[in-house]
Amino acid sequence: MHDTAPRELTASEREAMRDFQQLFEALFVAHQLRMDAAWLQEVLGQAERRALIDPLTQLWNRQGLRAMLTARCSRAEREALQWLSSTATLTISSASTMNTAMRRAIRC
């Protein structure tokens, strides 16, 4: 059976309802903060990836190459693997020269 008649709340019931309201509002705010933090982390990750890739060539830029090579060297050291000499001889300056040449070719 369903009680449809209006009734008055006692002081303790009103206090319990206020406590419930405050709890619900705090949970809602906490949920919103978690959602905002997740969104900010995603945006930050995208910005970090964009900062490592040249917008013209869509290849690693100097900072990206440094980060990638550092990570690869660390992994090779951890796994006690030898680093391929051809990868180790890649220099940042040759990548920069190639990037500059590509930019000049596009402008013509």
Describe the structure in your own words.
It is elongated and about 80 Å long. It has four helices and no strands. The protein is mostly helical and 108 residues long. Helix content is 74%, strand content 0%. The relative contact order is 0.07. The termini are far apart.
Notable features of this structure?
mainly alpha, elongated, 108 residues, 74% helix
Rg for CA atoms: 29 Å
Shape, principal axes of CA atoms: elongated
Q: Tally the helices: what do you get?
A: 4
Main sheet makeup: none
- Span from first to last CA? 83 Å
Helix and strand succession? HHHH
Strand segment tally: 0
- Judged by helices, strands and strand pairing, the structural class is mainly alpha
Instruction: Pick out the low-confidence regions.
Output: none
Average residue-wise pLDDT: 81
Percentage of helical residues?
over 70%
Beta percentage is: under 5%
Can you give me a brief rundown of this structure?
By secondary structure, the protein is mainly alpha-helical. It has helices spanning 11-52, 62-79, 85-88, 92-107.
Q: How are the SSEs placed, and which strands pair?
A:
Elements: H1 11-52, H2 62-79, H3 85-88, H4 92-107
